Amino acid sequence: MIEERAAAFTKRSIKTSSKLAGLKLAVSMMDLTTLEGKDTPGKVAFLCRKAMQPIDPRYDVPSCAAVCVYPNLVRVAKRFLGTSGVKVASVATAFPTGRMPLDLKLEEVRRASGDGADEIDMVIDRGVFLAGDYNRVFDEIAAVKEACGSAHLKVILETGELQTYDNVRLASEIGMRAGADFIKTSTGKIAPAATIPVTLVMLEAIRDYFYETGVRIGMKPAGGIRNAKQALAYLVMVKETLGDDWLTPDLFRFGASTLVNDVLMQIVKTVDGNYQSADYFSLP
């Protein structure tokens, strides 16, 4: 049933004016990310510049939501983003595996937060979860939340390793009850990453948690979303599952750096009536 309902979101017809507004909204929700061993301050600076001004100002496209980097590059990103309003996000807790003693995970979180990270993206230990030790998963998330200080916490479930939709639902509930500000599908390092059915399961968990507690939790599908058509389908799903309140960067994000150029290309096509070459757009 989840897969059948999820497939329906990809078949919605969207008018041109609504499409343009949706594409610009998608840009405002993107976390531009670089998580590679070859990352340099120069590459981070380039990504920050793109996040602040994704395209020529005449297209009236908003800035992206955040730039996501490894902890040792948080200060670099913070310096380049300045007072732009674009957030600095940092992965932590032994990203992407989650395999590290808890005291070291917490120290990494404190360092990233202390260096100026506005958001911390932690990973749960999937081995512990699949072994059924749900209390330990909860306790680790709660400890990380405390270590974040004023930074918001995104909890990455790595749904591609959770095996079943029931497990995705349970992990979502554990994350929210333990203190997550956002729940997030994937690290982007494992396939499959974000899918519409998995995201729908997580959105429904968020909806039911809101009905129970009145607390709004954010959602971030990450990895595998590569074109504007897919992004619009996700926005339709958010609107129909959670309502307009979630159609904001404060409560919904895309973690897909390869997505941004396709969305920008579609914006140019909608405004100017013709496609620009892919070479027209800087690499994310």
Verbal overview:
The structure is a single chain. By secondary structure, the chain is α/β, with parallel strands linked by helices. The chain has a single domain (2-280), classed as Alpha-Beta Barrel (TIM Barrel). Helix content is 47%, strand content 10%. It is built from eleven helices and seven strands. The chain has helices at 2-9, 16-28, 41-52, 74-81, 102-114, 126-130, 134-147, 165-178, 196-213, 228-242, 259-272, and strands spanning 31-33, 66-69, 87-91, 119-123, 152-156, 182-184, 218-220. It has a seven-stranded parallel β-sheet. β6, α9 (196-213) and β7 (218-220) form a beta-alpha-beta unit. The radius of gyration is 18 Å and the shape is globular.
The named CATH superfamily: Aldolase class I
Q: Main β-sheet: number of strands, strand sense, barrel status?
A: 7 strands, parallel
Strand line-up of the largest beta sheet: 1-2-3-4-5-6-7
Multimeric status of the protein: single chain
Question: In sequence order, what are the helices and strands, one letter per element?
Answer: HHEHEHEHEHHEHEHEHH
Average pLDDT over all residues: 94
Class from secondary-structure proportions: alpha/beta
Q: Estimate percent helicity.
A: 40-55%
Strand runs, count: 7
Distance between the termini: 36 Å
- What is the domain tally? 1
Low-confidence segments, given as residue ranges, are none
What does the radius of gyration come to?
18 Å
CATH architecture descriptor name: Alpha-Beta Barrel
CATH class: Alpha Beta
Shape: globular
